[in-house]
Amino acid sequence: MAVSSYTENNQVYWQAYVNLRSSINPKIRLQKRIKEIESEKAAKNEEKRLLADLSKQIARLELQGSNWEKVIEKWELDKLAYRMSDLVKTTILDYSALLQNWTKIWYGRPAQDLNRGDGRDVLKFAQEMGKSDVFVRRLKNTINLVYTWGIEEKLIVGPHVSPVYGIDLGTQKEQSVPEILTRNEVQTLIAKADEKNHHWAPIWKGALLTGMRSGELNGLQWSGIEMIAESDAKVQDTLAPERRRYGLIRVHRTWNTRTKSYGPTKGGYWRTIPISMELYWFLIDLKKKTGHTEFVFPRSWEWNKGYQASVLRTFCADLGLKSVKFHTLRACFATLLIQSGVSPTRVMKICGWQDLKTMQRYIRMAGIDEQGATEGLNLLPVRAQRPQEPSQEAINASEESANNQVMNQVVSLLDFKAAR
Asked: Mind giving me the DSSP string for 145-167?
């Protein structure tokens, strides 16, 4: 702001100049100059008038804020540029695309003008388009996330909550029973893949024995695996399962089919997976085939293109198994571990889950909380509850058969070790 004099055509004039910038949004700036004022006093009066006028204009501009599409754009750019962001690049792009696809009806409108009615319209439209409850909740949460960021960054002035905040979507319903393979089905899948010498067999085994995601398996290198020597492993084989130590796999990166590059894991942090006995000997055999390369698992064009789900679905369908996607193998790993007695907290660490809700889903799939709960009913007659006690001859025959099976297994185990 300034009042000054100047000379023009031998005549002395005064001018008033005001330059204002918003304290809320520094990008909002207004300036104006008035010339040919006859006196200093009149110039100072004009300065006061300009100051009041421009202040009102800036206040109106501040209340308008940014349009919704600009808020989305700036959120994406900020998160991609911010190295300490709690979201990985693919998640940021997914969130941005989700909002661009489903909130276009809000484009061209100041974000501050959006109200709860607008929020209900968007969520209702998604439901009418047949989207699942999970999808609609994700859409709502993403709108909340970006809108709240806009308020914090002063791009949205006025409202203190997003247009979908507090909208009741009802009790979340799980659309269907999650697809899963039983232990017998997993064993059938592995056996048939080996029998047919399927080129995906090693990758499927790796997923089932580690619980790693497809992209993590794709990016796994031999340098990320620490294993003991074979001579030490044979000693470990003789120990009780809880005392065996074969080594660790360090998971710290994943292949992204969209960006065609390797990046951090989905959670953005590294984790370790303990190597079991069968995983150890599987890796020893695999290293004889791929040990000359940096990658643990054989390369596949379908894998790099992101077709891992369709390959597995086709193979399972041909076997008469449930046609499952690749990510289901990770669910099988978690569920079978829980069923075998591994604590859910340890499974969470191995698989890299931080959300307890995700873990609860696999606990329900495993059914460990329900096992034995119905044993105390005792409603049926005794004869119907349990079979008639066998004769002594039947007991002796059963024990003899069991002993023979044990001896057969001992011979088989020794042959297995000798072969190694």
From this structure: HHHHHHHHTTSS-S-SS-TTTT-
Domain count, the chain: 3
Residue where a domain stops, chosen among 99, 134, 152:
152
Buried b (16+ CB within 10 A) or exposed e, 256-268: bbeeeeebebbee
Residue 171 within any structural domain of the chain = no
Do 83 and 123 have their domain in common? yes
Same domain (yes/no): 120, 207: no
Q: Quick check: is 373 in a domain?
A: no
State the residue range of the domain holding 139: 68-152
Mean pLDDT in order along the chain per 10 residues (420 residues): 86 91 79 90 91 84 78 92 75 93 93 93 94 92 95 82 90 65 92 95 96 93 94 92 92 84 80 94 94 92 91 94 92 88 87 76 66 68 56 57 45 40
Dihedral of alpha carbons 40, 42, 48, 53, sign: negative
Structural domain contains residue 383: no
Q: Are 164 and 151 in contact (CB under 8 A)?
A: no
Nearest to 143 by CA among 90, 173, 86, 101: 101
Task: Kindly state whether residues 246 and 205 are assigned to the same domain.
Answer: yes
User: What is the C-alpha separation between 3 and 15, in angstroms, rounded?
Assistant: 6
**What letters, b where the CB count within 10 A reaches 16 and e where it falls short, cover 270-307?**
ebbbebeeebbbbbeebeeebeeeeebbeeeeebeeee
CA dist., res. 240 & res. 158, Å (int): 65
Assess whether 217 and 322 both reside in one domain. yes
Kindly report whether the global pTM for this prediction surpasses the value 0.85.
no
Half-sphere exposure of 157 (CA within 13 A, CB side): 15
